[in-house]
Every structure is written in C-alpha cells, then in structure tokens.
Amino acid sequence: MGLELLVAAAVFALLMTASIGTMLTYSKLPVHHRQDETNTVVRLVANIFVVMTSLVFGLMINSSKNTFGEIDKNVHAFATQIILLDRTLRTYGLEATETRKRLQNYVEKALTNPARTAPDPLVKSDRTSEFALNAVGDSLSLIRPSDPGHIALWNDARQQYQRIVEQRWVIVEQSEGVIPRPLISMLTAWLTLIFASFGYRAPRNTIVVLMFSISALLISLSIFVVLDMDIPFSGWIQISDTPLRRALAELQQ
User: Which residues cross the membrane (predicted)?
Assistant: First the structure.
C-alpha cells in the first residue's frame, strides 16, 4: 500500500472520528458548553479554517498539476532527443550501428520492466539505468570520423547525447514530489477541526451520518489524487510511456 493511500485512509478515519465523535458527545457536555453563544463561536472559528483550507488545498492541487505537467513535457522532450540522436547516427553510417544498438537496448530495458508500466527505469537514479546510458556514450566515443562531414555528424551526436543525459537527470530531480509533508499534516488538522465543528449540535440521524461519510470519503480521495500526481512515476496516476514507446518504434525501423 502506497504512502498516498495510507494518508488518504488516515484522513478519512480522522474526519469520521471527529464528526461522529463530536455529534455523539455533544449531549454529554456541560450546559454552558451547549449555549447558542458557544455554537456561534464554534461556527465562526470553523469558517476561518474553511477559507484557509480552501486556499492551501488549491495551492496543493496547482503544485501537483504543474509537477505532473512539467515532467510529462520533459519525458516527451527526452523521447524526442533519443529519436534525433538515432537519426544522426543513422545518417552517419555503418560505423554508428553499434551505438544505435546500445541506444535501442537502453530504451527496451526500460519499457520491458515487468513491474512497471511507466518509464521509471529510464529516469530512475539507479546504477543499472546509468550504466545502460553510459554504454551509449562509450560506444559513441569509440567512433573515429575521417572526414569533415562525419566530424560534423559526430559532434552533433555528442551534443544530442549530452542533452539526453541532462534531460534524464532533470526528470530524476523532478520526480520526488514537491508538496511538503508538514503542509499535509497541517491541512489534515484543519479538516479535522472543521468536521468536528460540523458534528457539534448536528442531529443524530442516518442522513447526517451518511453525509459525513460521503464528504470525508470525497475529501480523502481528493487528497489521494493530489499526492499521487505529485509523484508521477509511482502510484495509480503515472506519466504515460507512450512517447518512449514511439521512440523505440522509430529506433527499430
């Protein structure tokens, strides 16, 4: 079970406990805690946190959306650079055949990972992925161009390879998520306080409990979606590997 799902489940449990617990214990409170003036103050304080929660949650949604969109754009650019390098090597001629094979092998390893459907190994910061990409650069370095035309193509290929390496590390650095965990804890505390205020003086009936349950579930799912999008190479919502599959198809032609 992923951390995002655990957080969503914890939020749901806290919201239900706060709302139902407050509703059940209201009648047991001292009389002066059940006065209209007290209820008015509780509602006013809850309204303050409703506004703050809306603003913070809106910022979290925008942040995760931007992270997901930026990495998706970089994955497309990454795949494009791979295709361009292959085109340059193909133009170079037979001497670049081994480099093209290593480049194709690099993409194939990422896309045939049985545990994942997203292009995680292509951008993951691990030694295997790094070695596979380094092998492309090593093979390219062994090529010895013999005329000005091939020298120009070789220099272009070297530049394209460097851009691929840089693009990979950009994606690696972006893939860890940007939403601070303390912010999630603070948002959860605010939501718990708001739901506790909802349960204060709420009538004890099935409709009220059902509304509390549905509201808590939808809010928990919203938090889950935001956190899942913030880490786009794991979880249920992942960056599509279609650009890299398209690049592999181009390499195999």
Answer: 40-61, 183-200, 206-227
Amino acid identity of 233? F
Q: Is 233 helix (H, G, I), strand (E, B) or coil?
A: coil
Nearest alpha carbon to residue 42 among 150, 186, 143, 193? 193
Mean pLDDT over residues 167-173, rounded?
85
Q: How many domains does the chain have?
A: 1
Cα–Cα distance between 131 and 208 in angstroms, integer? 59
Q: In angstroms, rounded to a whole number, what is the distance separating the alpha carbons of residues 56 and 62?
A: 10
Q: Which CATH number is 134's domain given?
A: 1.20.58
d(CA 150, CA 156): 10
Q: 238 phi and psi, to 5 degrees?
A: -125, 160
Whole-number Å distance between alpha carbons of 134 and 140: 10
Residues of the chain with pLDDT > 90: what percent?
A: 46
pLDDT per position as a tens digit, 28-80: 777 777 777 787 888 888 889 899 999 999 999 998 888 898 899 999 999 99
Domain that holds residue 182: 1-252
Task: Please report which helix (H) or strand (E) contains residue 77, including its range.
Answer: helix 36-92
Query: Tokens standing for 85?
Result: 């390098």
136: amino acid identity, one letter: V
Q: Which residues does 240 contact at the CB level (< 8 Å), separation at least 6?
A: 72, 75, 118
Q: For the whole model, what pTM was predicted? A: 0.79
In tens, the pLDDT along 126-168 reads 567 778 888 999 999 999 988 899 999 999 999 999 999 998 8
